[in-house]
Inverse folding.
């Protein structure tokens, strides 16, 4: 399987099994949050493939992949800050999980995760109350030479 797919699948599986994510919907792909409207209250994360670069295929290969993590929440509270509060909690939960993920025994079968870096987090300017969203850009450097 392609490395980008293996990494997305491994992160998705890890998040779904991690404490704190029991009621959060985690999916792979660029999906429409409106299709998950009922699940937005607990939180929703989409993991999307962005780009790959610095790929060296000699002797097993190594490279870098960027993934996008879209975080969505919903709050019907009349105070707009309530939505930001939910979103901040979801972002913190995701950041803690991404920080711990590479340190597992084998986060991705057959692939060594050399580095994981959150490049940026931006608000989703197209989301409007009661839905609140953001996007994290995550850079992962991988190698199949060390396995």
């Amino acid at each position: 399987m392609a490395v980008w797919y293996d990494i997305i699948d491994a992160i998705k599986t890890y998040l779904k099994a991690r404490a704190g994510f029991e009621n959060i919907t985690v999916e792979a792909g660029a999906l429409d949050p409106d299709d998950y409207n009922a699940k937005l209250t607990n939180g929703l994360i989409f993991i999307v493939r962005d780009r790959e670069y610095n790929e060296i295929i000699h002797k097993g290969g190594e490279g870098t992949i960027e993934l996008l993590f879209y975080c969505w929440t919903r709050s019907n509270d009349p105070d707009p800050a309530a939505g930001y509060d939910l979103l901040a909690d979801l972002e913190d939960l995701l950041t803690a999980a991404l920080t711990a993920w590479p340190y597992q025994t084998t986060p991705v079968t057959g692939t060594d995760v050399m580095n994981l870096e959150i490049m940026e987090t931006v608000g989703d300017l197209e989301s409007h109350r009661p839905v609140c969203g953001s996007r994290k850009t995550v850079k992962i450097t991988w190698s199949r030479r060390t396995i």
Residues 81-100 form the longest helix (20 residues).
